[in-house]
UniProtKB/TrEMBL annotation:
It comes from the Eukaryota. Residues 119-179 form the XLR/SYCP3/FAM9 domain. Residues 12-31 have a biased composition (Basic and acidic residues). Residues 1-11 have a biased composition (Basic residues). Gene3D superfamilies: Peptidase C65 Otubain, subdomain 2 (1.20.1300.20). PANTHER family: XLR/SCP3/FAM9 (PTHR19368), XLR_SYCP3_FAM9 DOMAIN-CONTAINING PROTEIN (PTHR19368:SF15). It comes from Dissostichus eleginoides (Patagonian toothfish). This is Synaptonemal complex protein 3. GO terms for biological process: meiotic cell cycle; spermatid development. Residues 1-62 are annotated as: Disordered. GO terms for cellular component: synaptonemal complex.
C-alpha cells in the first residue's frame, strides 16, 4: 500500500502542463444587444467564476486549513451573492406578473362596471317607459269606463225619449181616433 501511495504522489510531466488549465481568469463578456439581455432576464443568471483554483501541492500543512477556510468563505459569499441575484430576478418577474395581472383585472373590472352602468341606464329608461305606459293605460281605462257610462246614460236617455215619444204618439193617436169617431 505504501508503494501505491508513493506512486500517486509522484508528479507526472503532464501534471505540470495542466496547472494552467485550472487557472480561471475573468473572461470578457461578449457584447450583447439589449434585446438579448432582456430575453435572458427570465432565466437564472450565470455567475462568472472569479476564484482561482490552486493545485493541492501549493498548500502548506499549517496554512491549508486557513486557505481552505478562506476559499470556503469566499465561495459562500459568492453563493450568497448568486442567491440574491436569483432572488432579485425572481422578485422582478413576480412584480411584472403581478402588474400584468392587476392591469388585466383592472381592465375586466372597468369593462364590467361600464356594462353594468349601461345596463342600469337601460333599466332606468325601461322603468320610466313602463311607468309612462302604465299611466297611458290607466288613462285609456278611465276614458273607456267614462265612454261606457256615457253610452249607458245615452241609452237610458234614448229609451226615456222613445218612451216619451211613444206616449205622446199614443195620446195623439187616441185624440185623433176620438176626433175621427166624432166626425163620423
Amino acid at each position: 500500500m505504501a508503494a501505491g501511495r508513493r506512486q500517486m504522489k509522484k508528479k507526472h510531466p503532464e501534471d505540470k502542463l495542466d496547472n494552467k488549465v485550472f487557472d480561471f481568469t475573468e473572461e470578457e463578456k461578449k457584447g450583447l444587444s439589449g434585446s438579448e439581455d432582456d430575453a435572458r432576464e427570465d432565466e437564472t443568471p450565470v455567475v462568472d467564476k472569479l476564484a482561482k483554483k490552486r493545485p493541492a501541492e501549493d498548500f502548506d500543512e499549517e496554512g491549508a486549513t486557513t486557505a481552505v477556510g478562506n476559499e470556503v468563505h469566499n465561495m459562500l459569499e459568492k453563493f450568497g451573492a448568486d442567491i440574491s441575484k436569483v432572488m432579485q430576478a425572481k422578485k422582478k418577474r413576480l412584480e411584472s406578473l403581478t402588474k400584468n395581472y392587476m392591469k388585466g383585472s383592472q381592465h375586466k373590472l372597468e369593462t364590467l362596471w361600464n356594462s353594468y352602468s349601461s345596463q342600469r341606464q337601460q333599466q332606468k329608461i325601461l322603468q320610466q317607459a313602463r311607468v309612462v305606459q302604465n299611466q297611458k293605460l290607466k288613462t285609456v281605462r278611465e276614458l273607456y269606463e267614462q265612454f261606457i257610462k256615457n253610452m249607458e246614460e245615452m241609452e237610458k236617455s234614448h229609451d226615456s225619449f222613445l218612451q216619451g215619444a211613444q206616449q205622446e204618439l199614443r195620446k195623439e193617436m187616441a185624440t185623433l181616433q176620438k176626433k175621427i169617431l166624432m166626425d163620423t
